[in-house]
Request: fold
Amino acid sequence: MIRNAPPGLVFAALLLTTAALALAFPWLFLRWGSIETKPLVVPLLQLVMFVMGTRVSFSDLGLVLATPRSVAIGLGLQYLIMPFTAFGLATLFQLPADVAAGVILVGAVCAGNSSNVMTFFAGGNLALSLAMTTLSTLLSPLTTPTFMKLLAGQSVPVDFATLSWSIVRIVVIPITAGVLTERLLRSHKALADRWVTRLAILATCLTNAIITANSREALLSIGLLLVCVEILHNFCGYALGYAGGRLFGLSARDCVTMSMQVGIRNAGLASGLAYDVLKSGNAALASVVYGTVQNASGAIVSLFFRKQLERNLEK
Reply:
């Protein structure tokens, strides 16, 4: 049963399990002997980003130049839809300032690497997805601080330079190192695919548990409301991303790709920035919730899109 389950659902189940353990037994993830776990969040995320970099080749980077119009449309949709939707939802539901900043941060970060996996499962344009993920990641030291300053700057202190450097340190440098390492792993591809991916999953689940344990009280008090907000945020991304692709006359496959790219964010990066720059465990709650929601929903939505594309081919 587990082997045949969609990878997105398996990953979501692992995230839910670790979150449940952290809620029930927070002491397991607050301190290990003399080591406090909170400072481990950023190094763990750097490890995840390095692993993601090993999944990208130099030829993938060249895809950015091959589809400039579609990539530009996708980036425009991401940054028009997700930050402003996050701001609207945080305002509508009157979330506390630090939690609201976390919601906006999720909307302001780059596309998540799992969007490529979900695009593949959905039958979308994987080359376009890789190009969009790559460019949005490279632009994130500029775009994320800009939207945070614009939409959250009045609620929490946002230092543009500090936020930009944190993104470079957490994302750009580890991913660049991963891309360079990718060539070394080619001769051991089967082994790398198995163990490197498992390492990323372990690090992500551990990060999730540490953040949940450290923010347990806030999560228990506002958890249900935050879950509702992030479900709405996630599905607005899917729906508006697809609709935006249709509006610009893209093919059905490219519209599916837009949906996944807009709806799936780099929740791990948002978690790291909440701790590293905003210095707030409560701000990290939104990314923990969103990351779990998007992995479960992405598996379901990708299955729906694949069936729709298959029906279109049969006509």
Summary: The mean pLDDT is 83. The longest helix spans residues 281-314. The domain at 37-314 is CATH 1.20.1530.20 (Na+/H+ antiporter like fold). Residues 6 and 16 are 16 Å apart (CA to CA).
